[in-house]
Write a structure and sequence with these properties.
Elements lengths: L1 H16 L11 E5 L4 E4 L4 E10 L5 E8 L5 E2 L7 E3 L4 E9 L7 E11 L6 E10 L5 E7 L3 E3 L3 E10 L5 E10 L4 E4 L2 E4 L4 E9 L8 E11 L8 E11 L9 E15 L2 E13 L6 E9 L13 E8 L2 E9 L11 E9 L4 E9 L6 E14 L2 E13 L6 E16 L2 E12 L5 E13 L5 E9 L10 E13 L2 E12 L11 E13 L5 E13 L7 E15 L2 E14 L4 E18 L2 E11 L8 E13 L3 E10 L9 E11 L5 E11 L6 E18 L4 E9 L12 E4 L2 E4 L5 E7 L2 E7 L1 H4 L3 E3 L5 E5 L4 E10 L1 E11 L10 E3 L4 E4 L13 E5 L4 E5 L4 E5 L5 E7 L2 E7 L8 E3 L3 E6 L4 E10 L1 E4 L15
Parallel strand pairs: 2-9, 11-18, 45-52, 53-63
Antiparallel strand pairs: 1-3, 3-7, 4-6, 4-8, 5-7, 8-9, 10-12, 12-16, 13-15, 13-17, 14-16, 17-18, 19-20, 19-44, 20-21, 21-22, 22-23, 23-24, 24-25, 25-26, 26-27, 27-28, 28-29, 29-30, 30-31, 31-32, 32-33, 33-34, 34-35, 35-36, 36-37, 37-38, 38-39, 39-40, 40-41, 41-42, 42-43, 43-44, 45-48, 46-47, ...
Length: 946
């Protein structure tokens, strides 16, 4: 079967090759990481990375940066300011972000992308990997919490803090509640010895006016009081479901979440208005059909840099078929088309192990118009092996009536999991160029990452594209490798190598032929008191091989980095010194220096402040001039409805020479009670040599919509009443929490409850015991099994009564005169008895003496519907609590009785009244057999004489 699938796969690829068209060469901008591809960091630290951005267009472009971080990670340097670059200008962009203290150990991908504001098709991206190292000193355990709480009621948590370190720690606690509820913790401060633990009590008050079901998120953080010896902290997030007091009949219709946005933007006295309709959701109850759409216009991006382009797109999926129409990103593979923005259509079909993609796209804003059509086919042989074939071509429309072919691109891609810790990604590409100079060229891509053990990690990447390969990569050779390893305890090392070449044939018609090599070696150590220190050496050579040579220089630098956390402060600073040799001018600078400081301050959960400053010689540009940058930002959460952020940046390396550029960016987010949202974003920019600054803004008002798609046909309704059955009038019981699988309902003042929208199936109806009161129990066995059918309403009433308690003891009884012998023979005063098989003669109760309890005896009670069992403890005791009133049968199993003993009574009939407590003693008796001694004469003894 595998062989047939393999043959079919390659035969079908040849069919696809006859249907397709490809992409344009280049995207006008290049992004390359200048940091090691693999970084290691402890949680709670600041991480820095750098990327080289090059403008490959013929004019000045304004770019928007975006840093893609894992959820919960916080950016230190704002990417809200546009980056202006002249033609062929290069700039090193530094990124910095905070790894959360509670971040799980693992490997994370950090992406950096850049996009022209004018043309979305001018874009590029790169990434680095960050490994979060394991650190564990404190632990917070949840020992008790309610799963569901009625809105307006207060609830409590029981937490246990465990000190897993080796020294005493003075700790303080802080809690953030989302949404904001009054919350307290006792005790607020403790001193915890090494290896010890302590219980914490948390009290939370909820909002009685809650209208919808939510999850109350509690973030509990414990940190050291004194940071002089290094900060130790731990956080724990607890979720508690809060449900409103009244459960309404909702969910009868399938809803498509959507929103309408009205936007106004302005800059330099020009203003424009724009409207947007967007939404995403399912069109059927099974989730097989879905839709995603965005309609926005007219285009106001040229009016204001904060304005947006007009976009119109519609995506639809049905089972394994996905269709896309309009604007969007179209891609195949890294060597063919990693990313392309345009207007077109796409179909993606993925039945079982196969995957088929076909698309057509045409760029929107650049000239001449480029038409691309591409196809790909993939097959998943096993979970560890995937093969994919890609083919695309490009047509350049020089006039409205004529078309011409440019290039055809072929690639074969495979992803292989060689081991659990070893992944290999391969791609081989071929470009066939048509025109006056027909030629063919190869390209390949290798990406390998894994680890040799828990301590040694590595990554390797090699991308090669020949001069006549006009895919996403063109005329370039890029290599990068990194390995991290332990040296001694917390001392770790890192080796990395990176090389980059373009203009591989050194074509003199091109402006540059870059030859770049970088070697880095570093070691870092984490001290017990929280200080992190690293030392890195880098040797960089960068030269241009095309005459006239634009640059040829060499750098050797040594960088010292220190990071420290002081409670609410996180600090990271770099000091870099070295030498710079300009081979063109035959000059040497032994005082190359760069300094930087990153500071993150979070005084409370609603406030965050960041500071970044850098000064020193430029890197990767060969310029002897020093640059200065300062970036200050802050954000404030005012309650849950209002959020304000403000960011200031002053940069000496603007696009117009080295003049100073100042930027201020602010954001206001306000959520109204009806869930409408108002967003105001503004930016002010000022070049030092210009008299006037530039001001731009975007004001957006968003209205959420719940568009009913269709009435649900496959839902059922479960409703009923909870009442007090002990009282003659059977009054209703309000605020009782009921669950049917994952659904929850609460009884109203009339005792009624309703589950308005349940999918057909089997449901287990349960009642929250805490909500019906202490020592109270339902008259029906729980859970109640209910079969829900579409379109039907099921009514179930539940009575509540005071629970009963039944306890007792299984004990061995004997006559007071019995003496226990090793041979199990009992002797009385009047007669001799032998314990053993025989007639069960029950002595009078007055003659019996209670002995030891009989442990490990199985005791069972049943009312015909429910069966409860227990084993007696070492004293023979058993107890059944919170049982329903009614007729119960008690049975004692005799398989664990002592030899030659029997139960006086094996079964008991009980009729328990509400609130009744009854106790019984089960007697285990010995089997007595009397022995009669008959006198038949005397035994004579003869004396023998010798």
């Amino acid at each position: 079967m595998m062989k047939k699938d393999f043959i079919f796969f390659f035969c079908f690829i040849s069919l696809l090759f006859s249907l397709s068209f490809a992409q344009d060469r280049g995207y006008g901008v290049e992004v390359r990481s200048t940091s090691p591809e693999l970084l290691e960091i402890e949680p709670g630290r600041i991480v820095t990375g750098s990327f080289l951005v090059s403008n490959k267009t013929q004019g000045e472009e304004e770019f928007i940066e975006e840093l893609k971080l894992p959820a919960g990670w916080q950016e230190i340097i704002s990417d809200q300011f546009p980056l202006r670059l002249k033609p062929e200008e290069q700039r090193v962009r530094v990124v910095a972000f905070m790894v959360p203290q509670t971040c799980a150990t693992g490997r994370y991908q950090i992406g950096y992308s850049i996009r022209s504001e004018r043309d979305y098709n001018i874009t590029d991206s790169d990434s680095i990997s960050v490994v979060v190292l394991p650190v564990m000193k404190l632990e917070i355990l949840v020992e008790g919490k309610p799963e569901v709480v009625i809105a307006g009621d207060a609830y409590g948590l029981m937490l246990r803090l465990v000190n897993k370190g080796n020294s005493k720690i003075d700790l303080r606690f802080k809690i953030k509640s989302t949404p904001t509820y009054p919350v307290s913790i006792k005790p607020p401060v403790i001193a915890l010895e090494a290896g010890k633990s302590q219980v914490l009590k948390v009290e939370v008050e909820t909002d009685a006016k809650l209208k919808k079901r939510i999850k109350n998120v509690l973030e509990i953080k414990a940190e050291t009081e004194d940071s002089s010896n290094g900060v130790v902290s731990v956080s724990r997030t607890v979720l508690v479901e809060i449900i409103p007091k009244v459960t309404d009949e909702f969910g009868r219709y399938l809803i498509l979440p959507s929103q309408v946005a009205l936007m106004g933007a302005g800059q330099d006295g020009k203003n424009g208005l724009q409207a947007e309709l967007s939404g995403r959701g399912s069109l059927d109850e099974e989730g097989k059909r879905g839709i995603d759409f965005l309609f926005r216009g007219p285009d106001i991006q040229e009016i204001s840099r904060r304005g947006r382009r007009d976009e119109y797109r519609l995506s639809y999926h049905y089972d394994d078929i996905q269709l896309h129409f309009g604007d969007g990103s179209y891609s195949l593979s890294p060597l063919t088309q990693k990313f392309c923005y345009g207007r077109g259509l796409e179909a993606n079909i993925s039945p079982e192990r196969y995957g088929l993609k076909v698309f057509y796209a045409e760029n929107r804003w650049s000239q001449p118009k480029l038409r691309r059509v591409g196809t790909s086919l993939s097959y998943q042989f096993t979970k560890k092996l995937n093969i994919k074939g890609n083919f695309l071509t490009k047509r350049n429309r020089s006039t409205s009536s004529s078309w011409s072919y440019d290039e055809k691109l072929y690639s074969l891609e495979s992803k292989v999991e060689l081991a659990k810790t070893l992944n290999l990604d391969l791609e081989l590409g071929y470009c066939d160029t048509e025109g006056e100079q027909e030629s063919g060229e190869l390209a390949f891509r290798i990406n390998l990452d894994g680890q040799l053990s828990d301590q040694i990690r590595y990554s390797y990447e090699n991308i090669y594209a020949g001069p006549n390969y006009f895919g996403y990569y063109n005329d370039a050779d890029y290599k990068s490798s990194t390995i991290t390893f332990p040296i001694y305890r917390k001392l770790r090392g890192n080796f990395s190598y990176r090389s980059y070449k373009n203009n591989l044939d050194i074509d003199s018609t091109k402006e540059t032929a870059n030859r770049e090599k970088s070697r880095q070696a570093s070691a870092f150590y984490s001290f017990p008191f929280g200080t992190h220190i690293s030392l890195k050496y880098e040797d960089l050579i960068r030269e241009d091989c095309v005459l006239p040579v634009n640059y040829n220089y060499k750098e050797k630098t040594l960088k010292l980095e220190v990071a420290q956390t002081f409670g609410k402060f996180s600090l990271r600073t770099h000091v870099e010194r070295g030498e710079f040799e300009d081979r063109l001018l035959a000059t040497k600078n032994n005082n190359l220096e760069r300094y930087s400081l990153y500071l993150h301050f979070r005084p409370s959960y609603g406030q965050t402040y960041s500071l970044y400053t850098r000064t020193g010689h430029s890197s990767f540009t060969g310029s002897p001039k020093k640059t200065k940058t300062i970036d200050i930002s802050g954000s404030w959460n005012i309650k849950d409805e209002i959020c304000i952020s403000l960011n200031f940046r002053r940069d000496e390396s603007g696009s117009e020479g080295s003049q100073k550029l100042s930027n201020i960016f602010s954001t206001l987010n306000y959520t109204l009670p009806n869930n409408h949202a108002l967003v105001l974003r503004s930016q002010w920019s000022k070049y030092e040599q210009k008299q006037k600054g530039e001001f731009s803004f975007l004001l957006m008002y968003t209205i959420p919509l719940r568009i009913p798609v269709s009435k649900k046909k496959s839902i059922g309704v479960l409703k009923g009443k909870v009442y007090d059955q002990e009282k003659p009038e059977k009054p209703p019981i309000p605020k009782v929490i009921l669950t049917a699988n994952e659904a929850t309902a609460i009884t109203r003042e009339n005792g009624g409850y309703i589950f308005p929208s349940l999918e057909p199936g089997t449901y287990y109806l349960r009642v929250d015991k805490a909500s019906i009161g202490f020592n109270r129990v339902t008259t029906r066995k729980l859970p109640v099994i209910i079969e829900v059918k579409g379109g039907e309403t099921i009514t179930t009433e539940i009575g509540v009564v005071t629970s009963c308690k039944f306890s007792g003891r299984v004990a061995i009884f004997a006559l007071p005169s019995d003496k226990k012998l090793e041979d199990k023979v009992s002797i009385s005063e009047d007669s001799l008895f032998l314990i053993g098989p025989g007639k069960e003669e029950k002595p009078k109760n007055d003659d019996l003496r209670e002995g030891r309890g009989l442990g490990n005896t199985l005791v069972e009670i049943t009312d015909g519907e429910e069966v409860l069992r227990q084993l007696t403890d070492e004293k023979g005791r058993f107890s059944f609590e919170d049982i329903r009133p009614g007729k119960w049968k008690l049975k004692i199993y005799d398989y664990n009785l002592p030899t030659h003993h029997y139960l006086e009574q094996e079964e008991f009939q009980l009729d328990l009244k509400p609130g009744e407590e009854r106790e019984i003693t089960v007697k285990v008796l010995p089997r007595h057999r009397p022995i009669q001694i008959i006198d038949e004469g005397k035994i004579k003894q003869e004396n023998k004489q010798n």
